[in-house]
Amino acid sequence: MAKWRPTVISFLCKWCAGSAAELAGVSRLNYPANVIPVVVPCSGRVSPRLIVEALLNGADGVLVGGCHTPGDCHYMSGNFKAFKRVYLLKKLLSQFGINPRRVRVEWISATESQKLVRVVREFLSELEELGPIMGDVRE
Amino acid sequence: MRVGVFVCHCGRNIAGTVDIKRVVEEVSREPHVIYVVDYVYMCSEPGQQIIINSIREKKLDAVIIAACTPSLHYETFAKAVERGNLNRYMLEMVPIREFVSWVHPNKMEATDKAIRMIKGAIVKVMNNKAYELLRSKVVQKCLVIGGGISGITAALDIANSGIPVILVEKSPTIGGKMAMLSETFPTLDCAQCILTPKMAEVSKHPLIKVYTLSEVIDVSGYLGNFKVKILRRPRKVDVELCKLCGFCERVCPISVPNEFDRGLSKRKAIYIPFPQAVPTAYVIDEENCTKCGLCLKVCPTGAINLEEECEVVEEEVGAIVIATGHDLYPGEKLQEYGYGIYEDVIDSLQFERMLSSTGPTEGEIIRPSDGEKVKRITFIQCAGSRDESHLKYCSKICCMYTAKHALLFKERVPDGEVTIFYIDVRASGKGYEEFIKRVQEEFMVNYVRGKVSRVYRDVNRDLVVVGFDTLTGERIRVRSDLVVLAVGMIPQMSRELASKLRVPLDEYGFVQEVHPKLRPIELSTSGIFVCGTAHAPKDISESVTQASAVAAKVINLLSKGEIVKEPIIAEVDENLCSGCRVCVTVCPYGAIEFVDGKARVNEMLCEGCGICEASCPVDAIRLRNFTEEQLVSLVKAVLRG
Amino acid sequence: MFVSKPTLAIVYGAICGGCDVALVNLGERLAIILENYDILYWPAAVDSKRETLEKVSSIDVSIYMGTLTNSEEVELAKLVRSKSRVLIAYGTCAIYGGIPGLRALINASQTLKEISSTTTTVEEVRLSRVAELPDLLDRVKSLIDVVEPDVIAPGCPPSDSVNETLVDILVDYAKGAKLEGKVFIGDPNSLCSKCERKPPELSKISMPGIRRLHELKLVEDKCFLEQGVLCMGPVTRATCDLPCIKNNLPCIGCSGPALNVEDMGLEMVSVLSSILLVEREKELLEEGLSKELDKIVDLIGLLYRYTLPRSLLIKLKSSGGRNER
After folding, report:
1. Residues B574 and B508 in one domain
2. Is the pTM for the entire model greater than 0.95?
3. Which CATH code for domain C7-184?
4. Does the interface predicted TM-score (ipTM) exceed 0.90?
């Protein structure tokens, strides 16, 4: 049987993290394929519900990629909203018995393609340790 | 819904890693997908023709193009789709090159991921709607708030391009702080000489309407269509009839401190701020005039009307320029330096007036307390600046103007003693460093590095400046006849006006730009721009540069008569909206307002970030073609695989 | 048209008695119901037995109140649904799980372990099999998780206005009116639509921080969120007349979610994140903002007090090992 691999949905803002992902492509950097990108206008567009729907439907982890605080967000402070939402969501997940490390918010600027690849690799190996999300809730 | 999917090989760039055949097979099985085709270079002419023909022949409602990133070829494919008579917003691109084939060498994994991403896009595009570009007519007129050098420069640049300007100035004349200066650094040009021709140009310009003694009291509307209310205070002297004879001034019984000389001289209640004032006419100071009528009796042209009242004028403009400038940090707050306690402690702008040959002392440097000539003078730089207890920031120009003051003083009093207390000397402009060197060496001005702890008057009537010389490590006392405080700049824009304009202010009250490096003159409120010291402390050359930059933005905005915009904006379902105000709190552009308790999006201001939709608890406000439901179904389709 | 009086059954899941009290508080209007209906079953008021429900061939109207916490309550729910022409889910417990719904966080065996480990009896507790006790459900449920009702009346307990509407529906039905599809009683928008604390000029909400109720003097005419007080108003359905708000207390969400609120807790997380300290984000940065957010002590208690069994994250727990909702 094939070894289980975690599935990650990543919401990347088009101005920063998404551009970094594009640059990673242009630079032919290699990274694991079990991270699926969804490009959004701003990390502030990502609602807690969207993140949970991903976890509910097969994602073992969710990555939100936005512009660096305090001043890089193209829409001023959407990234701060993303930060607060993920922060509260992680606390909520803990209370539900779901490991909060399954949701991450990272600031990745348009040129930081290397950082994106590193973050993706780190996140996936962390999730491999944590196991599938169903394991969190099995009693 | 009839969806067509076009998979590009991009030569070997995609086909080398992704199994195109399997992609086509799997995607064909998706519900609503009625046509799938692959081609070696989709963006080429034949490739585009395939798309166009397919749309027509298969009557497609929506198109997915799995190829490179939209940043590259979105326009190409959007235009192709339009040539097939399909709305471009029914197109979704899936970047399986940059995000898949170029980064995942394993064929099976890459193909799997490509298929997932395409399935997600299919589900999303099915809920897309067709939209047309948004167009809005703009009023081809600009409002400039503030008639200092920045406002004047912006007004002239804009008016010279053919766009009418309304210039609103609070005081009775335009000219601002620059009119009060004697010479400007580093060239020592006479300030009035370079300013007054510009003031005259403004007054004569057919496309500039100047409202002095006026203030903006209300602003409504938005980019391209602002409605402003301007309060015009009564001058009580007819500008056309006044011939500047000055008889009225002679007979006026009321004498008050002259604000143009910053209290160093007096003026009458009927006065002209300075001889080159624009408009060139006298003005009655409403507050202090007793309406005795003596001036009426002597005016040869009957220009005076004591009964003139305020009026409110309404104007419509397409853009607004903020050039409200600065004021000086009140010296009274620096008690330890004795300002307001000792007459002979003055601030830099008062010293500027003293230096001026048309100032209160006709260019003589004398002690205000007794009129005695000044031999020993001390300048205190950073008076209340770079200080946690006063102004945290540096006001940029004080080092330069203090050096200038020292030079000009030494020119008039060659045997005078000049001491300057400083923390740093900041001279970063063109020719500035050389200027400072010249002052220090040629004019033998004594620069002491250290802070002043206090200034007091001793029994000999000398002012004693107690400071610390950090380079010798000694406490020093300098005896002076006159002490000049180089106080910092504070913004003049009131929080009230800022909130009416809906412009953000930073923690110090300066107008907050969108981005300090890339968009330093634009504000998050579209259609409003800022230049000069209203934005941050700066000198005249920077103010003028910024004003011209603002003018370019305004001309660009208004010259075509209309603004055209992408229609991917937010809109509100009024049935669901409860008026909870969360969306309006997060909108970076102030694009949401409330009508009858329900949120409404201003189409011209919305930039399509979607933060509002993520915030709305009932999903009443939605980003077109990027709604929550679309994203949720996309994520589910991608995870389903 | 009914030949004889239509029958009415009022059945319970796990209840506190508050919904019974709400019905009794109808006062004279209760008498109107009694005039129009034959009470077949109502343990609080009528001496009837479970057998009655099982033997009767059909029931005209059933009102179900309470949470489903054990197998018997589930059976009862299915029973009344199958026999009733009209089934009314009455009270937040029936619709969303309510307060007993908070037990959705732990399963049956953990629950029993908790009970036995915290008991203070001298003797060792052993569950007796002398009486046949129904099985505890592994996850508590709301009525709606199991059957589909025809009328939904939210509130903990339902407010006067909801009750008024319910009485009207019952009386009309008894007189022969047909029910048009599913009825969800009450204003579907959130509390904010009716709240008088909204300022006349609707503009940004400035939430100055997180304040517990005892940390400040509550201002009577100012929006709670603008005082830093956590109010569930933006996500809660406005089926009540805002008695809590009018008595200077913030909303705790007892009417359940407003229309189109997918998950009360997640939407409220977004609301709070959107308005908290927005003017000081760049000053406080992540560290300062986290510190303030840490002041919210019990997120589930705040956000899911009444709706936990219907939350999205509980569905994740409920699938426990299988990837299905």
Report:
1. no
2. no
3. 3.40.50.700
4. yes
